[in-house]
Amino acid sequence: MINPLDELLGYRLRRASAVMMTDLARSLEPTGLRPTEASVLLAIAANPAVVQSEIGRALGIQRANMTPIVATLLARGLVDRSASDGRSKSLVLNEWGQALTREVKARIDTHEAQFMPELDADAKQLLLAQLRSVEGARRH
Amino acid sequence: MINPLDELLGYRLRRASAVMMTDLARSLEPTGLRPTEASVLLAIAANPAVVQSEIGRALGIQRANMTPIVATLLARGLVDRSASDGRSKSLVLNEWGQALTREVKARIDTHEAQFMPELDADAKQLLLAQLRSVEGARRH
DNA sequence: TATTGTTATACTCTATAACTATA
DNA sequence: TATAGTTATAGAGTATAACAATA
């Protein structure tokens, strides 16, 4: 059967992304984290005392959707939260969060390596740059 | 703020794909079709009398999820369905479906062009090939 | 036995609107 | 007025299991 979408950038991105997301979800399963939760965990790890809404802006997650994600990380005892000013709340990883972050990073590294077998460092950087350029070509 | 996901292929694919999917949905809005429905429409157009389950296999849509998509296309009067054998059902576009397909193709072309400003034909083919290779590197 | 299509259902991610409290 | 966080809700896409009808 002819697939008329084969040559479409948007379609290829969607399929490639779906494959990697499915594999990532499976790779993270032993940590009990979903991809979105893991991405927030890594963002907190890289930016101690960051404010919740700022993570959302950086990761493209809306404020309203950050709430249950952070609630999950708090409920699992990975993150500590304290008032930054009266309305903002700073997030930091505690000891368990840091330990789990190391495991998450290792699992993501293994996962990523599965999908870039034949690309050298330069080709990988070019590919990432092209993807950023696609993302940045957003229409307004 | 540092985004520790910036260099991850999976993350860049996800973000780029999300941007294009959002724009595609908006580009298709005047047709009343969602991206998934449009993709099935194009698949039928390219493969007259194709069977429903085969479209699903080609597009990565499960049988169970094809049912409501095809039902929408039937309800909109774009597609005709007839028994292929006792259990399979052949799908063809009728006159309205063909007309809407032309509009969908035009809108997708415009949409795609927005996101590949500086790539020549060779670079585009290379990029598509890399995305196929990512997709094919699926673990089992 | 395997396949087609269907139904029902659940989960993940995303989107919007409205509310409070603080700045 | 604008921002941070919350709540509630809806939609779109995807996933699985079970079923009837047919190959």
Considering the chains and any ligands shown, give keywords for the structure:
globular, mainly alpha, 3-stranded antiparallel β-sheet, homodimer, 3 strands, DNA-binding, 64% helix, 140 residues
Question: How would you concisely characterize the structure shown here?
Answer:
With 140 residues, chain A is mainly alpha-helical. Chain A has helices spanning 9-28, 35-46, 52-59, 63-75, 95-114, 121-136, and strands at residues 50-51, 79-83, 89-93. Chain A contains six helices and three strands, in the order ααβααββαα.
Outline the structure in words:
The structure is a homodimer of 140-residue chains. With 140 residues, chain A is mainly alpha-helical. Chain A contains six helices and three strands, in the order ααβααββαα. The first copy, chain A, has a three-stranded antiparallel beta sheet with strand order 1-3-2. Chain A is globular and about 55 Å long. The N and C termini of chain A lie far apart (36 Å). The model of chain A has no long low-confidence stretch (mean pLDDT 94). Chains A and B meet through helix 1, helix 2, helix 3, helix 5 and helix 6 of A and helix 1, helix 2, helix 3, helix 5 and helix 6 of B. Chain A binds a DNA duplex (23 and 23 nucleotides) through residues 18, 22, 25, 34-36, 51-53, 61-67, 70, 84-89.
Chain-wise SSE layout:
The structure is a homodimer of 140-residue chains.
Chain A: H1 9-28, H2 35-46, E1 50-51, H3 52-59, H4 63-75, E2 79-83, E3 89-93, H5 95-114, H6 121-136
Antiparallel strand pairs in A: 1-3, 2-3
Helix pairs in contact in A: 1-5, 2-4, 2-5, 3-4
The structure holds a DNA duplex (23 and 23 nucleotides).
